[in-house]
Design brief:
Length: about 325
């Protein structure tokens, strides 16, 4: 891998891991395809994506309206134990759509992403695609990959309490980090996403009241913080093993998260829909069986918070001049 970092045993590092080689997925993709060209048959959209997204959006909006007169304790409970799973599912549906994996025509994926965004309450679908595709093309590249924490985050988040707070509020860091470190001018699609989302939010408050709207926001916030599904944010690229940059999760929550847990497989083949990623591992097991993987995202969160050697600096970085890969 070429990673390098100096740290004392038992002490949190003061710098990122640095790699002096290109990210590993493009070269592994070429190797796998040379041995198993039939994997190309898996490329393409998921024909059930539109239906799955429509069901979740409808269910979450119905739940929000049904809670218009509920007490706050009930709203909070339903938001954490039910709505959070639905909104995080939609967040990962938007991740799927950012790779055009619902329709062959890109613009249809963008419209569906704006639709999937509705119960989340905050417009993010269009902007997410811009930054996420850069995460694939320039994985770990300093100043470009906004999936990596900033130096400010890394210097502040130094102990168990700080890491716990960071995990609870990690969605805010993901949302605000690009605006400060790598801002991009908004365009027509961002404006469209904003107008449609604010129109839904206004309608929710006007017809059903603030409690229904608050339920949606709480579902988003709780589902992205100290929550089992949010463990994927940490498990995907935070380095617990210095010899590995990307990690997969093979637990049951893949059923609710568009199989984003198959993350090595996803980065190797971003043109394969989540519903088919397990087949990559079945076809080419020798390329994945040697990697460390996880069975519990909750355990990953616990490990991250409690391990005093792991923190926001536990990410791989590389210089921009070393990377110029294409997102296939």
């Amino acid at each position: 891998m070429g990673g390098e970092k100096k740290e004392e045993e038992g002490v949190m590092a003061s710098d990122f891991f640095w790699s002096y080689t290109d990210e590993p997925h493009a070269s592994r993709r070429r190797q796998i395809l040379s041995h198993y060209p039939q994997i190309k048959d898996l490329f393409g959209p998921d024909p059930w994506a539109f239906l799955k997204i429509t069901v979740v959006v409808s269910l979450q909006l119905w739940t929000a309206t049904s809670l218009q007169n509920a007490g706050w304790l009930k709203i909070l409970t339903v938001a954490y134990f039910f709505g959070s799973f639905l909104n995080h599912n939609l967040f990962l549906a938007i991740h799927e759509l950012s790779h055009n994996l619902a329709f062959s025509t890109p613009v249809y994926n963008r419209w569906l992403g704006i639709f999937a965004n509705l119960p989340i309450g905050v417009p993010m679908s269009v902007t997410f695609q811009k930054y996420h595709l850069e995460h694939h093309r320039f994985q770990g590249v300093d100043g470009i990959d906004m999936d990596i924490p900033s130096h400010t985050e890394a210097h502040i988040v130094k102990n168990v309490l700080a890491k716990s707070i960071w995990v609870i509020f990690q969605l805010f860091f993901y949302a605000l980090r690009p605006l400060f470190l790598n801002p991009k001018p908004p365009g027509v699609w961002e404006f469209t996403n904003l107008v449609i989302q604010l129109s839904l939010d206004y309608a929710m408050v006007y017809f059903w009241g603030w409690k229904s709207f608050a339920y949606m926001i709480l579902s988003t916030f709780l589902g992205g913080g100290m929550h089992p599904m949010a463990g994927h944010f940490i498990s995907e690229h935070y380095i617990f093993n210095p010899d590995q940059e990307t990690y997969s999760y093979y637990g049951p929550l893949n059923l609710l998260t568009w199989s984003v847990g198959y993350h090595n497989e996803h980065h190797d083949f971003p043109r394969i829909a989540g519903s088919k990623l397990y087949k990559v591992k079945e076809i080419a097991p020798e390329y994945y069986e040697g990697f460390k993987s996880y069975r519990s995202w909750s355990q990953v969160i616990y490990m991250y918070v409690m391990d005093r050697t792991v923190g926001p600096f536990s990410r791989m970085k590389r210089k921009a001049s070393k990377t110029a890969k294409k997102d296939e």
